[in-house]
Amino acid sequence: VQLQASGGGLVQAGGSLRLSCAASGLILSSYVMGWFRRALGKEREFVAAISWRSGRTDYADSVKGRFTISRDNAKNTVYLQMNSLKPEDTAVYYCATKDGLRNVAYRTDYDYWGRGTLVTVSS
User: Fold this and answer.
1) How far is CA 107 from the centre of its chain?
2) What is the pLDDT of residue 7?
3) Which positions ≥6 away from 96 have C-beta within 8 Å?
């Protein structure tokens, strides 16, 4: 499985960005796609996840109500719509995929990772 994240950039606080993650290779319907981020000097943290099969979503408390994860199964692509961005959202964002719905917030459970895309939110 190969993952390609894109869509990062520089945006002012309060603005919006949409990240995309295109998946290729063998994608099983049981897979979950997650977004994680790592800010400078911090560990990689969970942002959101979505089930390929059911569309069930999970979010970190810090992004609930502002970020929306969605998928396009026909394109094997997952999106992260980020609204009302804050300077503390500045980070490198990574997409990753794993099999199964358990522990979607645990980065160590994910098997495949894409290269990150940088999101910078200015104040």
Assistant:
1) 12
2) 97
3) 3, 33, 34, 35, 36, 107, 110, 111, 112, 113, 114
Closest CA to 62 of 90, 41, 31: 90
- Per-residue confidence (pLDDT) for residue 93, from 0 to 100: 98
At 93, give phi and psi (nearest 5°): -105, 135
Residue with token string 């996840």: 49
Comparing C-alpha atoms, which of 80, 78, 14, 76 is closest to residue 47? Answer: 80
Mean pLDDT by 10 residues, the chain (123 residues): 96 98 87 96 97 95 98 94 98 96 91 96 96
